[in-house]
Amino acid sequence: MSAFDGIAVGDPVEFGSYEFTAERIKRFARDWDPQAFHMDEAQAAETPFAALCASGWHTASVMMRLQVDYFAAHRGHGLSFGPSPGFDDLKWPQPVYAGDRVTFSGRVVAKRRSRSRPGTGIVTTEFSGVNQNGEAVFSMTAHVFVAAA
Amino acid sequence: MSAFDGIAVGDPVEFGSYEFTAERIKRFARDWDPQAFHMDEAQAAETPFAALCASGWHTASVMMRLQVDYFAAHRGHGLSFGPSPGFDDLKWPQPVYAGDRVTFSGRVVAKRRSRSRPGTGIVTTEFSGVNQNGEAVFSMTAHVFVAAA
Q1: Which tops the pLDDT comparison, A98 or A142?
Q2: Which of A69, A71, B119, B139 is at a distance of 20 to 30 A from A103, taking alpha carbons?
Q3: What is the pTM of this model?
Q4: How close is the nearest chain B Cα to the Cα of A113, in Å?
Q5: Quick check: A57 and B60 CB within 8 A?
Q6: In what order do the strands lie in the sheet with A86-91?
Q7: DSSP 8-state class, residue B49
Q8: Over the stretch A133-146, which tens digit does the pLDDT of each residue have?
Q9: Are A35 and B78 in contact (CB < 8 Å)?
Q10: Chains A and B: how many Cβ contacts under 8 Å?
């Protein structure tokens, strides 16, 4: 059975959760997004965010990591994804603040065989991240190529 | 003059370039996207990518870092961006391979004052990353809130 055949539309999968400690927020920001509201509590207090919060790219990267770990642990293989034709609607509806714990999940909403790439399927997945208060803090719709031969 | 008033539609800005060395690709992947094609040359050769290539989140994170550094160096301040209502059309049209040098730029394509948030503007920017062969490897359209009071 191909990876494509093994994917069922509607399957919700919870990848896991991650605590955005102040230390983790600052470490990511130092490398990739050194803006004041991601680096320093006092400076963050003076911005519209009002407190230290994670880079949106940190949140997205955590989603990726938890997803990879989930598939490695539960499916016994990597994602087997090829290149992606693109992602839509990347959103961070609420800031992720220091101390927040965010749970990430994905749900396959559509799949079809590619017309231009024989042996390849295109799978559309809605990803989401929800904090400990039940608030959505991350969402994204991804289209990825999956082996279908 | 507010940050919003200082932004001109059509302004192209080149943020800088970055060499995706194998070491940098693997280091990001170890933390955030430990898939074989981002971690190991031999295993990558057996995948549709055919060679070691960067995580898409690495490419996005580099874009963010170069943008922050550019504004810090050339405008003397941080981005002054508030929360983002969302990004559209995040694409990685070609893989970024080990040894590629990618140049990132942004172009403001629209700006307007927010109706729901007084004193705030919404700026739409098209971001792109182009490798040393002139091939697009990253594109994204971002909408961000900017102080307009």
Answers
A1: A98
A2: B139
A3: 0.90
A4: 17
A5: yes
A6: A12-20, A100-113, A120-130, A136-147, A86-91, B86-91, B136-147, B120-130, B101-113, B12-19
A7: T
A8: 999 999 999 888 88
A9: yes
A10: 94
The residue to which tokens 């050194």 are assigned = A34
Which residues face B17 on adjacent strands?
B103
Which chain B residues touch A44 with a CB distance below 8 Å? Answer: none
In this structure, the number of other CB atoms found within 10 A of the CB of residue B51 comes to 14
Per the listing, tokens 């090829």 go with: A82
| Pairwise CA distance, residues B92 & B103, whole Å | 14
Tokens of B39: 């971690």
B55, B61, B94, best to mutate vs chain A, most A CBs in 10 Å? B61
Q: What is the pLDDT of residues A99-123, one digit of tens each?
A: 999 999 999 999 999 888 888 888 8
With an 8 Å Cβ cutoff, the interface of chain A facing chain B consists of 31-36, 47-49, 55-57, 60-62, 64-65, 68-69, 78-79, 81-92, 94-95, 145
ipTM of the complex: 0.89
Tokens for A136, please give them.
């959505």
pLDDT of residue B5: 83
